[in-house]
Amino acid sequence: MSSVFYVTTPIYYANAEPHLGHTYTTVVADMLVRWNRMHGREAWSVSGTDEHGEKMVEAAEKAGTSPQAFTEQISAVFQRTWAELGIGPSAFVRTTNPKHVANVTKLLQKVWDEGWIELREYEGLYCVGCERFLTERDMKDGLCIDHERAPERRRETNYFFLMSRAFGWLRQYIEEHPDFIRPERYRNEALAMLRDESGLGDLSISRPKDRLDWGVELPFDRDHVCYVWFDALISYLTGAGYPDDPAFEARWAVAEHLIAKDILKPHAIFWPCMLHALGIPPYKHLSVHGYWNVDDRKISKSLGNVIRPLAMRDRFGFDAFRYFLLRDMSFGVDSVFTEDALVARINADLANNLGNLVSRTLNMTGRFCDGRVPEPEEPGEAEDEVRAAAETAARAVDEHVEKLEPARALEAIMRLVDATNRYVDQREPWKAAKDESRAGELRTTLFTCCQSLRAIAVLLLPFVPDSATEILSRLGVPELADEARLPDSALGFELPAPGTETRKGAPLFPRIDSSELSEGED
Ligand code: ME8
Hints:
Layout: E1 4-13, H1 20-38, E2 42-50, H2 54-62, H3 67-84, E3 91-94, H4 98-113, E4 117-127, E5 132-134, E6 139-140, E7 143-144, E8 152-161, H5 167-176, E9 181-182, H6 184-195, E10 203-204, E11 206-208, E12 217-218, E13 221-226, H7 228-233, H8 235-239, H9 248-253, E14 255-260, H10 264-278, E15 285-289, E16 292-294, E17 297-298, H11 309-316, H12 318-328, E18 335-336, H13 339-369, H14 381-402, H15 406-427, H16 429-432, H17 439-460, H18 465-474, H19 480-483, H20 514-521
Helix pairs in contact: 2-3, 6-10, 11-12, 12-13, 12-15, 13-15, 13-17, 14-15, 14-17, 15-17, 17-18
Bound molecules: ligand ME8.
């Protein structure tokens, strides 16, 4: 496996502030970066803001300002939000950034020089929300399905990227690389789009300046600007250091794009065809998740039903929120967001299950062993079982993260928490503590709990980094938060060593009383 990892989130439109959907993709990217770093890989991540196009002009007009001032402000909100939440990418690409504009200009010229572009008259139905011409499949009752607004009929002379020339190549590439687009349902969707070429055709990649001048000028015709998608997709190259960063090639060879299903077509069809025309190898994976729906509708800035990540952090703590996102969405399938589901998940998994194990382990180590990890006796069958459960969990986490199944990885960690809680229930250390003759057994039990809790915290580091770091610190091994390597640091019952000082601390995940929450809301 490569020693480099490169992941991207979409380059979000800078027309409104970040919401739950953006946060989900950005959290998954952050989790993958942390998990890969724990495997010793050099991990690089890219996010950014998509700032050109009609959508921005419309939004800026509404806000009574210029597109430049408007996108500047929203882009800053995205950057600040990710930084405050601790999920900031390694590189943040703004499509108005001069280095990116230079890349787009250079690559447009290259595609033009190599004969992949043609001037044509075009008439069709255009949705400004999608920033593209729609096909029948994209509409219901005359409205764009995603934006619930009527597209406009437009007739224009546009430059076309002769994308259809690459369809044969792309179909074969997808067929020969089963995990190029995953999960499989989206691979099948991409293949279906390619089979039904009437819905695809070539791609209009220009807008006449007299209609729209907020974009990258075409180097071969100054009266047109570049279509926003052609511009935005190139951010993934800019963010990886194209063209002059020596790390670019190694990163690009393993590029992993994360998106939701709304932008499958540009990523599964336009982008590989563009790369093919540019003579750049395709990305490695396109991983597609479903929608978070609120009130049974996709959350969207234009529909107005938004959940803000900073507000969620202030109310529930960001780790708890991020745990919910990763645990409750089965990657690839839609999920419904409700506050009740969030509270139920936090209470069941974090407050009751994990929180209980943390507090009982550290409280009893404090009370019965002077706050130090005790010296164990020879492990018995029960201890071997806990150890085996930790090994199973470590293997499962790796397997599931590699297949992009974060929910199942967390489920596996929670099974280890369950097994350890059951072990404590069976050993009843509070009874052993009252019986001098069971002193050895008591030490073995609490030693085993500390070891298992350390394994759990190490496995949780990519998912709930602050809480996992806090558990490691309370166990007296804070250095593991930076040094832990997977799967090793989750196995080998050697740390924390006997004698290590532990600390009880306040409840990590206080139980949320949902009745109080709703009263507070009224
Ligand atoms: O499409 N559920 O930007 P965008 C899950 N600029 N994820 C969601 C979501 C939801 N309800 N809503 C948004 C664009 N997302 C283009 C991308 S890339 C070169 C250009 C997330 O601001 C999800 O990742 O509309 C989705 O694909 C993305 O935000 C769309 O962001």
